[in-house]
């Protein structure tokens, strides 16, 4: 068990840091805010799938992948918005191709080096990720307006060999269909389920924690995060598009964790992994997007049930199912520039709770204050300050820390991050974080980690 725990954190931070950078990169400029709702609900303009007036690059934004709570950057903020004529050539035929490359470096500057590494950044770690994505407008083959095919691939490299990240695999292969003027959307195929729910990359992020995905309760309970799983996702919106119910059913991630799941399914296309069953999520929410003199509000709460047998830490046997629930609220506090309503200060509060017998982390509480466009001259930058408390379940604590003379029951992370828009298509994110108890199997000195992420979009 110690080996598996030691391997998990690094892989997490690579992926989450990339997605956090992408989220910051897609901060909506006024034109972008008019183009799409970040929860995947398109306005009439997008649903018509017609090219928009204005800058050439902006005209292709309606073709960007929809549905995920980690939205993708506007085509105008890429290294070559027109892709030297390729974007127009493909766009006229219903296709859009986009991509990102993220390079990441992290190190615990307190110098707690150890072989093998016990947590993310204990030794200097470099990682790289290349992500390529293609969409196709399915209205061209007779489906309802707004319907879309998405296929994407990931290629990972990491200097931390213990993380097991050095591969190329499928990231997503889905069809999105919309019905009743966009009030019902159905997504089916292969995808990372956690990316469709929760909105976990807004505000607090495991990019700032040595604990990695081990501390993300929905991931512990089986929502896939890296390797895609087959599933169906249904969103139903009330007429005002503010209240919604979001239901998903998918093949669970392996009960042994995301590394075991990735090793059993390295290509990402395997339909079934031994021992896994269905996981079901139901999320209800209320969401108001920022508009002039209207501040953003997003509340969501959900329950997770997984039929896959999980290890019971009291008996050390795999039996029964797993479950969890969560609640998150984001609220815009200040809106200094009504002409750019997304700018301002926000607060995010979240909590997760899981079965105390079958999970390592059973409760967490997090608070983040963050600013989008903290300076008028830097409208696409983002600053965040966050604190997370992760509680280790009593059953797991007794099992994992057997023989340890210094037992502990929680870990905390305090972080400060700043994402700077260096130039078109280039973002640099710097994170400083302090994590207590960075290795849960035994007491280790606290970690103070510095992390840098360079993201290039094209």
Ordered list of secondary-structure elements with their pairings:
Blueprint: H1 2-25, H2 30-35, H3 44-47, H4 86-91, E1 95-108, E2 125-137, E3 148-158, E4 168-179, E5 184-191, H5 217-220, E6 229-237, E7 243-251, H6 258-264, E8 278-288, E9 297-306, E10 310-312, E11 317-319, E12 322-332, E13 344-354, E14 361-372, E15 382-392, H7 394-400, E16 410-423, E17 426-435, E18 447-457
Antiparallel strand pairs: 1-2, 1-18, 2-3, 3-4, 4-5, 5-6, 6-7, 7-8, 8-9, 9-12, 10-11, 12-13, 13-14, 14-15, 15-16, 16-17, 17-18
Number of domains: 1
Derived structural class: mainly beta
How many angstroms separate the termini?
41 Å
CATH topology: Porin
Helix amount: 10-25%
The low-confidence runs, each spanning 5 or more residues with pLDDT under 50, are 1-53, 203-208
CATH architectural arrangement = Beta Barrel
Mean of all residue-level pLDDT scores: 82
List descriptors.
about 450 residues; globular; OprB_Porin; Carbohydrate porin; Porin; about 40% strand; disordered N terminus; two-stranded antiparallel ribbon; 7 helices; OprB_sf; signal; Carb-sel_porin_OprB; mainly beta; 16-stranded antiparallel barrel
Structure explained in plain terms:
Mean pLDDT is 82; it is low at 1-53 and 203-208. It is globular and about 65 Å long. The protein has a 16-stranded antiparallel beta barrel with strand order 1-2-3-4-5-6-7-8-9-12-13-14-15-16-17-18. A two-stranded antiparallel ribbon has the order 10-11. 13% of the residues lie in helices and 40% in strands. The protein has 458 residues and is mainly beta.
């Amino acid at each position: 068990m110690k080996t598996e725990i030691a391997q998990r954190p690094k892989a997490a931070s690579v992926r989450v840091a990339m997605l956090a950078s992408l989220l910051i990169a897609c901060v909506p400029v006024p034109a972008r805010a008019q183009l799409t709702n970040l929860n995947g609900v398109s306005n009439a303009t997008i649903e018509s799938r017609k090219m928009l007036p204005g800058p050439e690059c902006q005209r292709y934004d309606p073709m960007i992948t929809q549905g995920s709570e980690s939205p993708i950057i506007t085509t105008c903020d890429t290294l070559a918005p027109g892709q030297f004529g390729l974007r127009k050539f493909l766009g006229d035929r219903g296709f859009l191709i986009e991509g990102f490359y993220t390079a990441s470096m992290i190190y615990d500057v307190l110098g707690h080096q150890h072989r093998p590494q016990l947590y993310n950044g204990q030794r200097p770690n470099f990682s790289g990720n290349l992500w390529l994505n293609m969409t196709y407008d399915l209205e061209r083959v007779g489906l309802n307006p707004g319907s879309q095919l998405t296929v994407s691939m990931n290629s990972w490299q990491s200097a931390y060999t213990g993380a097991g990240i050095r591969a190329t695999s499928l990231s997503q292969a889905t069809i999105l269909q919309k019905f009743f003027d966009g009030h019902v959307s159905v997504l089916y195929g292969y995808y990372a389920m956690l990316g469709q729910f929760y909105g976990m990359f807004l505000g607090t992020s495991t990019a700032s924690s040595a604990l990695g995905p081990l501390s993300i309760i929905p991931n512990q309970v089986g929502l896939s995060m890296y390797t895609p799983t087959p599933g169906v996702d249904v969103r139903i919106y009330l007429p005002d598009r503010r209240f919604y119910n979001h239901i998903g059913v998918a093949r669970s991630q392996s009960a042994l964790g995301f590394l075991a799941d990735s090793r059993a399914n390295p290509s990402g296309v395997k339909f079934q992994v031994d021992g896994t069953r269905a996981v079901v999520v139901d999320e209800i929410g209320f969401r108001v997007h920022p508009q002039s003199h209207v501040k953003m509000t997003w509340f969501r709460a959900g329950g997770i049930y997984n039929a896959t047998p999980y290890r019971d830490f009291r008996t050390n046997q795999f039996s029964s199912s797993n479950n969890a629930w969560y609640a998150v609220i984001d609220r815009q506090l200040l809106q200094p520039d009504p002409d750019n309503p997304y700018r301002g200060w926000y607060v995010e509060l979240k909590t997760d709770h899981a079965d105390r017998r079958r999970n390592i982390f059973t409760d967490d509480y997090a608070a983040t204050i963050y600013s989008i466009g903290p300076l008028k001259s830097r409208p696409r930058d983002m600053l965040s300050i966050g604190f997370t408390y992760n509680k280790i379940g009593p059953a797991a604590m007794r099992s994992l820390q057997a023989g340890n003379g210094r037992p502990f029951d929680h870990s905390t992370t305090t972080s400060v991050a700043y994402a700077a828009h260096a130039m078109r298509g280039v973002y640099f994110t710097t994170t400083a974080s302090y994590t207590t108890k960075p290795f849960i199997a035994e007491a280790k000195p606290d970690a103070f980690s510095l992390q840098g992420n360079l993201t290039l979009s094209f």
